[in-house]
Structures are given as structure tokens and as C-alpha cells.
TrEMBL record:
It catalyses: a fatty acyl-[ACP] + phosphate = an acyl phosphate + holo-[ACP]. InterPro entries: FA_synthesis (IPR003664), Phospholipid_synth_PlsX-like (IPR012281). Keywords: Acyltransferase, Cytoplasm, Lipid biosynthesis, Lipid metabolism, Lyase, Phospholipid biosynthesis, Phospholipid metabolism, Transferase. Its EC number is 2.3.1.274. Catalyzes the reversible formation of acyl-phosphate (acyl-PO(4)) from acyl-[acyl-carrier-protein] (acyl-ACP). This enzyme utilizes acyl-ACP as fatty acyl donor, but not acyl-CoA. It is found in: Cytoplasm. It comes from Marinicella sediminis. Homodimer. Probably interacts with PlsY. Pathway: Lipid metabolism; phospholipid metabolism. Its main location: cytoplasm. This is Phosphate acyltransferase. Belongs to the PlsX family.
Length: 314
């Protein structure tokens, strides 16, 4: 393997689909991006089961056998205590040790957060990493976080989340040094929402951030702000609801009653697979989470996103 190439560590075992789905996506990416290298982590049983497939391995892919793997329904505590030799864990450790530039997995989100925090240093003031994704929009995209790394937030946590989003948005979105920040809420009025978001609103009003106030779900694809913050419970439901809608749009876009609505987004690609891949922010290392149900196309686009972020995030 050419060490001068950017290197991505892949947890091949993580995800709902067969590891071969992700293997095919990696090989497709390699053909189109030969100046990239991969460290692919898998367990012994997978290697033995698909030995003939893995025998045809490109030169810029290294296969590394891990002692075990993490199940999709395994608890983060168990993963942290008993699975530090798993394919996900050693892939993250490769980034921590400087042996890879990024890690990508479609595996267990809770385990990923716990193990990433264990192996990598925190690089911000928030206590736990936050998952973020870039939503397409017109006239501009929006960085949405947290989308599931931490379900419950205090007001101080939301404040730190806003600071984190504002810090990375210029690199991810090319939006300028003072990105616009908003809190996702049930209304735009300052009296709306529960105590936590109202307290966070007051903290942000007194901050030096370019804070716009509250926004609603209808603002997410309208370019209302560069960064929109919420707790992981709200963010995860919001993201999956949006993805479900887009899947329905994609399946029914030929019907006349969809076309009037759909034409408003002619300049935006609405295929959810094109946006597969969420960043785990707040860590001293690039960690990317693909959807657990990623098919070959979805995981390929997560690879594309990872490659783009490797050039943007320093």
C-alpha cells in the first residue's frame, strides 16, 4: 500500500446488510479513485466464509482480521468493555494511532460514540461527540446536529453544540467565518418550547455567535441558517422522517400530483442515498457514520462523502 495516499479505515462488519455489500462499494470507489487506500477490518468468520471473494483484493486495500465484531443491537457499555478488539474498535484506533486518516462504519451508533470517545481525544468543550449531517437546501445547505449521538441535552450542551457547529461549518459549507446558527424548536417565538431550549436560547442571545433564534422544521431545507442545532432525540427523528419522505418522492415522482411540488427542488438532488454519511464531531479525528441499512449505492456515497471531508476538515 502506498502510504502517500489518503487512507480510510473501514469497519466492514458494521451494518444490517452483508459485508459483501460494503466490499463491492469499496471496490467501485477504488476503481474511480485509484489514489486512495483502505484498511478494511473484518472478523475471521467473515474472512473464511468469503475467502474466494477477498482473494481478489486490489493493491491499495489491506485486509486486517479483528478478533470479533459488534452486533447492531449490542449495548454501548458492552461494546466498550468487551469489544475493544472488534473490527469497529480497531478501525477507530487506527485513526487514533495515525495509521488512517478517517474511519467509516455503518455499524452500531451507540458503540461508535463510546469507542470513538475512548480512543480519540475530545477537541471541543462539549462532553460527548455529536453526529452531524449536511441537509440539501435552496438557496444553501444546512448543517444539522445532533442527529443521534446524545439523546438528552442540557441548555449548556445545546450552547456547546452551537459553538461546535459554527466552528466546523465554514470548512464543510464554505459559508464564511460567521455562520448563521439557529435552534430547532416548535415555533420561532421566544416563548415557544420547553425550558431547555428556552434557556439555551437565552445563552445564545448573549453569545458572540451569529445567532438567529429559533427555527421550525419547515426551515430545514429553505436555507434559513447555516447551522441548526437540537438534541439527538429530535434530530434523529427529524432526519429519518425527511429521508422517509424523500424515498416516497423518489418512488412517486412520475405521478402528476407530485410534480408541482417536486419542481420546486429541481436544483437539489433529493435521493437520500446521495447524502449518506454523518460526521461524528468534537473528536481529534475524522469519524463518519453511514446508515445501518446502507445498500451498495448508499455505502458508496458514504465513501464519497468521507473522501470529500478528508480534504476539507483539518
Amino acid at each position: 500500500m502506498n502510504s502517500q495516499f489518503p487512507i480510510t479505515a473501514i469497519d466492514l462488519m458494521g451494518g444490517d446488510d452483508s459485508p459483501l455489500t460494503r466490499w463491492r462499494a469499496i471496490n467501485k470507489y477504488i476503481k474511480l479513485n485509484p489514489n486512495h487506500a483502505f484498511k478494511v477490518y473484518l472478523d475471521e468468520s467473515c474472512m473464511q466464509q468469503h475467502q474466494q471473494t477477498f482473494a481478489e483484493c486490489p493493491d491499495n486495500i489491506s485486509l486486517i482480521i479483528a478478533e470479533n465484531s459488534i452486533l447492531m443491537d449490542e449495548s454501548p457499555i458492552r461494546a466498550l468493555r468487551q469489544k475493544r478488539t472488534s473490527s469497529m474498535s480497531v478501525a477507530i484506533k487506527a485513526v487514533a494511532d495515525g495509521e488512517a486518516d478517517a474511519i467509516l462504519t455503518a455499524g452500531n451508533s451507540g458503540a461508535l460514540v463510546a469507542l470513538a470517545k475512548y480512543w480519540l481525544k475530545m477537541s471541543s468543550t462539549i462532553e460527548r461527540p455529536a453526529l452531524a449531517t449536511v441537509l440539501p437546501g435552496s438557496p444553501k445547505p444546512t448543517l444539522l446536529l445532533d442527529i443521534g449521538a446524545m439523546l438528552e441535552y442540557r441548555a449548556e450542551d445545546l450552547y456547546g453544540l452551537a459553538e461546535l457547529g459554527a466552528q466546523v461549518a465554514p470548512e464543510l459549507l464554505n459559508c464564511g467565518p460567521r455562520p448563521e446558527v439557529a435552534l430547532l424548536n416548535v415555533g420561532t417565538e421566544h416563548i415557544k418550547g420547553h425550558d431547555t431550549v428556552q434557556q439555551a436560547d437565552r445563552l445564545l442571545q448573549d453569545s458572540e455567535l451569529n445567532y438567529l433564534g429559533f427555527c421550525e422544521g419547515t426551515h430545514l431545507f429553505a436555507g434559513f441558517a447555516d447551522v441548526v442545532c437540537c438534541d439527538g432525540f429530535v434530530g434523529n427523528i427529524t432526519l429519518k422522517a425527511c429521508e422517509g419522505l424523500m424515498q416516497q418522492v423518489q418512488s412517486k415522482r412520475h405521478l402528476k400530483w407530485w410534480q408541482k411540488w417536486f419542481c420546486q427542488f429541481n436544483d437539489v438532488n433529493l435521493n437520500p442515498a446521495q447524502y449518506n454519511g454523518a460526521l461524528l464531531l468534537g473528536l481529534d479525528g475524522l469519524v463518519v457514520k453511514a446508515h445501518g441499512n446502507s445498500d451498495e449505492q448508499g455505502f458508496y456515497h458514504a465513501l464519497v462523502k468521507t473522501g470529500e471531508w478528508m480534504t476539507k476538515i483539518k
